[in-house]
Amino acid sequence: MKRMIQALAALLLLLAPVGLAQNLIPINFQSKWFPQAQFAGYFVAQDKGFYAEEGLDVTVLDGGNVNPTVAVASGNADFGTDWVANILTQRDQGLEVVNIAQIYQTSGYRLVALKSSGIETIADMAGRKVGVWAFGNEFAAEAVFAAAGLTSNLDPTVTNPDVDAVVYAFDPSLVFPNEVDVASAMTYNELDQIIGLGYGLDTLSILDPASIGADLLEDSLFATPATLATTNFKGSGLTGAEVAQRFLRASIRGWEYAVANQDEAVQIVLSHCGDTCAGSGSRQSPLIHQTWQMAEVAKLVKPTADTHVGALDRAAFERSVKLLVEVGLIKQAYTWEQAVDPSIYDAVD
């Protein structure tokens, strides 16, 4: 009898993961770019089983040339991460989405020039060629231009613009420094790629939009109101809001773990991304580039020891909205109540 009980227990133990996997709720999460340490917290939550512990089977969808806000609003993904500028610009186009958490507490967007160019401030970009991105990422540059009182050819109504904006496909090696005087760069990605091209930090002028109050919130977590209001999410018996809480709780755990265990987080990221981890144009190995990226991302996710990962900062959100309205990127000054649903974060904090 004892042997039979032991055999039955072993069988149940073997079958348990199968049953658990069958009962997990499938979630599609739309990232903003290809797999890299920018999304380390989600990959960590996936690999460490944090999502599974919440009853979720999360697939992290590649970004690349995908507009995350459009992907979520169209139903191709359940949750997504995007910059507030693109989220609100798409809302102006009629797409209904709401922020449920703010993963990056500070902005990583910079404009980079060679010191030898004589460009030392944002105002010095007048009369220069500035490299900018597309797919909603150009809004960060447009906000900087407008806040600095500079016109650009991104506005088709402007004649004789102050700045010649050159739109390119993210890779700084395509344009910098021969085709543009200034390149767009994230502190955690393209800045290191530029260094990888052979330009040391001491040779670069790194212009921070915050110096003129033109920094905007990045990497927010969002969903559609319809998803959150669902009463039976994908037949799970849970509401959309309850699923969102589970997703956010596990994601926050993933980010906290990634920030505290950066070397391990980098290895997890490397297992997901292959060649893209090296960063376009970088001469550095994927390990070196992702180690840089993880360290810089950690500064944005948790800038101080007492920062609550994912916390929604109403003042920072309202400042971003005000700037976007002032520079003409959105028409409506969306209120906190219109564009943010803090109930999800509040339920898991």
Q: What CATH first level of the largest domain would be assigned? A: Alpha Beta
Structural class: alpha/beta
Q: Low-confidence segments, ≥5 residues, pLDDT <50?
A: 1-20
Q: How many helices? A: 14
Could you state the CATH homologous superfamily of the largest domain? Periplasmic binding protein-like II
Strand order of the largest sheet: 2-1-3-10-4
What would the CATH topology of the largest domain be?
D-Maltodextrin-Binding Protein, domain 2
Number of domains: 2
CATH architecture descriptor name of the largest domain? 3-Layer(aba) Sandwich
Mean pLDDT: 91
Q: Using only CA atoms, what is the Rg?
A: 22 Å
Kindly report how far apart the N and C termini lie.
48 Å
- Biggest sheet, in brief? 5 strands, mixed
State the order of secondary-structure elements, H for helix, E for strand: HEHHEHEHEEEHEEHEEHHHHHHH
Topology, number of strands? 10
Q: Give the DSSP E fraction (strand runs of 2 or more residues).
A: 5-15%
What helical percentage do the residues reach? 40-55%
